[in-house]
Amino acid sequence: MGDSLLSVIAIIVGIVIGFVIAKIIEKSNVSNLIKNAKKEASSILKDAAHEAESIKKEKILQAKERFIEMKAEHENVILAKDKKITEAEKRTKDKESQVSNELSKNKKLNQELEEKIEKFNSKIEFIEKKQEEIDRIHKSQIEQLENISGLSAEDAKAELIETLKEEAKSDAMSFIQNTLEEAKLTAQQDARKIIINTIQRVGTEEAVENCVSVFNIESDDVKGRIIGREGRNIRAFESATGVEVIIDDTPEAIILSCFDPVRREVARLSLHKLVTDGRIHPARIEEVVQKTRTQIDTEIIEIGKRTVIDLGIHGLHPELIKVIGRMKYRSSYGQNLLQHSREVANLCGIMAAELGLNAKLAKRAGLLHDIGKVPETESELPHALLGMEWAKKFGEKDDVCNAIGAHHDEIEMKSLLAPIVQVCDAISGARPGARRQVLDSYIQRLKDLEDIAFGYKGVKNAYAIQAGRELRVIVESDKVSDEKANNLSFEISQKIQTDMTYPGQVKVTVIRETRAVNVAK
Fold first, then answer.
1. What percent of the chain has pLDDT over 90?
2. Is the pTM of this model over 0.70?
3. Which residue, 384, 419, 403, 413, is CA-closest to 195?
4. What gap in Å lies between CA 98 and CA 210, rounded to an integer?
5. Beta-strand relationship, 331-332 and 507-512
């Protein structure tokens, strides 16, 4: 028991001694670390002080250099200002010297001017005295003349004036007679020269209208779709447009035949839309034809606007612009009416300028001279008088209206524009190949055929096709029965046979169609 206690005590004592020794060793290590840290801190401070000293010296040097640069710049600025001041002082001195010289010159000039004024005044006094003497002498001479001649001054003056009047009148009459004789000798030559110059300065295309349009297609398969089942599509198309569609063996082509260019153009555009769209049936055909007619009406207005802009004509009434656009789809003796009117306008402008007249007014009259040829409704007035009425209605000047009405001598010419328009109209129509009388009479015959059909009640549309060899008449089903349609065909054929002269024969076809339309909702 005693030995075990001693051993425990010995162990505890050993542990205490080891702990004490460890603390002593730890304290010695800490003191060493502190010493080392103090040494490193002192060395860092020394390095920092040294580095700070070097930076301070460098900044001082930089500050000195900047100061020297700024000082040099300041000195340069001061030198430049001094130079400018010196130059300004020099200029001021020069101006002062110039002013002083001018003042001295002005003094001399003033002295010379005063001397001249004095001399001039003395001369005026001398002249006034001389004038008084001349007036006195003149008065005495007049009195002597009156005593010698027995006439007063007023009577002598009146007699002298009468004598001068007679002499001037005889001289003027002889001058006028000589001028008239010279004008008669040269007038024809000058007129021919003006007309030739005018014609040479205007070039135009000679284009004769035809009555067919060729519609090209990609393949012949399209022809069958255009004809339709049992020909219903082609019949609907011809009925809606009034144009004959000729489908033959010509590869990849369909011919549209009609004397009216507007109808032919509507048919061509409608056929193009139908072929492009691919849906071809009677209802679709009527819809497309109606839309195309609206499109053509818009295009007519645009054509009229472009024409007046090209010719430099301003302030034209919108209705007249529309009439001008319709000229594109009309012909006169085979000559396109719009081309003819444009050419006449240019000729009138040039000829008026040659004669010293208003060229713009002449152009206006030339462009409008044939507007009576494109009436929307039939009129019994000649086209010149109808055009004159339209021009008056839409606010054109009296000279323009008179030139339109008188260009075919229906009324008296009241201004110089009228003969100019008449001459230029004849020039345009007389160009080689410009007109074709046969075509115009042919178109008139087709129009007469249609007019005969429209003279009967119940007729909705009438179209002359196949070059006038067939007249197709479309009647309203609620007003014309089948039996009456047959009688109507006979009556129209008899009327044509009685009232018209034509080659060959004319077939009259009356079409009566009944439709039942309902809408599913």
1. 2
2. no
3. 419
4. 90
5. unpaired
